[in-house]
Amino acid sequence: MKNKRVGLAVFVSAVLLIVVVVFFLVELFSFDEGGSSAEPVSATAYRERLDVLLAMGNPANAEPVFQIYGCVACHRVGVANGIAPSWEGIAERAASRRPPMPADAYLYESIIHPDAYLVEGFPNSMVPNLDSRMSDQELADVIAYLLTPEAQ
What we know:
Number of helices: 8
Number of strands: 0
Strand content: under 5%
Helix content: 55-70%
Largest sheet: none
Distance between the termini: 77 Å
Radius of gyration: 23 Å
Order of helices and strands: HHHHHHHH
Structural class: mainly alpha
């Protein structure tokens, strides 16, 4: 009787192990490294969404948003350490970063899909899931600020 219990325990353990391995392999082969359902990238891919955001954006309200999400840690303080590009002159650089994508679309994509394009020399260190964490108003205010000459 004891051998039947041991045999049953081994059988159950083996089945559980096989199930775990199968689930692991399914997850491994279906893993999406980007982790996001990125929109198609083109000069007009984000236009409709951006028009709504830009109409409501207020650059004067961006500073508290930067503090809430810790943006300043990398884009101001961490610039010297090569963590993230500076915001100084960002509107001008953004306009030519991914032609023919305009500056506002590039900035939107950089926040919402930060792994879509990485600036050479900088790691993908952007805070993840900002698209689900930031409100539309916060996102609008940030983009509006970054498009101003005062961005730094």
